[in-house]
Amino acid sequence: MIWVSLYKITRKKIIKEMRKYNQKNIKWWVGTFSCVAFFAVIIFFGWEKMSFIRNGVELEASIVQSSDSPLYIVEGQAPRAKHLKLNGREIFIDKEGFFREVLIPQDGYSVTSLYAEDKFGKISEKEFKMYLNKNSSSFALSE
Fold first, then answer.
1. DSSP code of residue 62
2. Where are the domains of the chain?
3. pTM of the entire structure?
4. Which of 27, 35, 81, 129 is deepest in the core (most CB within 10 A)?
């Protein structure tokens, strides 16, 4: 009889301790999950804000023929570019990354290349292949 009553008392204490443990365990998991979620959001936000380092320079350019003249204008935008070269010659870029340069193509087949580099060393290149026939007013362009 003594063993049975002792067993009941011990069993009640064990159940009471397990309930406390489960409540602490749930609180611990909620707190841990909250901290992990908080730091994951901070890391994701930082990763997205630093995407310009991963992506490098974005080079957008086009060649347009100026009206009633043999000149062609190379214009576009290269945001985050530190250096921009047209056929090996460095050209000016404004603060927003816009550029505009006059080009005189030679008769026949010619290749015009744009080379952009950002301050982290990422490179972007674009080539325009042109065929110009001065005898006719035809002009072919491919990128």
1. E
2. 2-49, 56-142
3. 0.62
4. 81
